[in-house]
User: Fold these one by one.
Assistant:
Number 1:
Amino acid sequence: MDIVTIIFIAFGLAMDAFAVSITSGLTIKHLRINNALKIAIFFGSFQAVMPVIGWLAGLSLRDFIAGVDHWIAFGLLSFIGCKMIYESIKIKSSKKEINPLNVYVLLMLSIATSIDALAIGVSFAFLKISIATPIIVIGAVTFLLSFLGVFVGNRFGHFFESKIEIVGGFILIGIGIKILIEHLV
């Protein structure tokens, strides 16, 4: 897999974390750089670790499904992309504000936004992709976008949130289609 594709995957995966960072920035009244760093470190770290866990799980299954690995990668990426698009469109009502700087809240948000990265890690194992470069790129892109997202949210609010998740969803679907076409042609 080339670096451009890995970067697009990283951006697609980071969109959930970016959207949550925007929301977090919206709720933080007196934003400081260390607040944005804390959120970015949590999201970036989890987005980097989850593909490793998925990759390790996928390695144990790879030999059993070698003939259909491209279909599984396509299915996982398309499912995750469609899920992101659906979740960005459905109405989100939140009556209770949560503190995004609370460690337990950050932990839960980090896990929730990185589950998709776990599935991508499984796809990497099926496609026999070395995991080192993708996790560095995914972690770094998520860190940067989350850091920026906190400031965007603090300044501009919910204007961008759902639109960003839609873009991320379409990016992941497109990459799934690209993988499928490459293996079928």
Number 2:
Amino acid sequence: MYRRGTSASTRYLTLHWFPREDAVGEESRLGLAVPKSVGTAVARNRIKRLLREAWRSLLSEVPPGRDYVLVARQGLVEPAESRGGEWLAAEIAEVLAKVRT
């Protein structure tokens, strides 16, 4: 995925994607990577839940037939907690906009 795919980044997120030939037109799949540098286990699990929820709210904007890996970067916990899910969805939408171009 990381070698053959393409990626786009923002300050807090990196999105890797790869087209699936066997699933053209099917719903996309998402994988999450939240490294230990992001925070404690509790913080990482909370971020994963928030990222999944924000991703689901943007499914209509996600190009189908691709595999995605969303990687959280260090420093995401504080703004995600203070600004909420709408901010996180906007961050994901920003990196998704780079996918479509």
Number 3:
Amino acid sequence: MNKLLLIAILVVMLAVVVVLAMGIGSFGKGGTEGARKSNRMMQWRIGLQALAVLLIFILVSFAGKG
């Protein structure tokens, strides 16, 4: 179970980095559409970061019991 959670955490953390890079890239393009896409990417990043924190919390709580 711990290995599965660790893999899920790593995948989510990688997704955070990818979404962050995409958001920064679209921010650099400028214009209304670029700003809109950048804002959407940053919202996704915040959600993925929250998911990563939740998964880390679950992993730590399981590790404390075992």
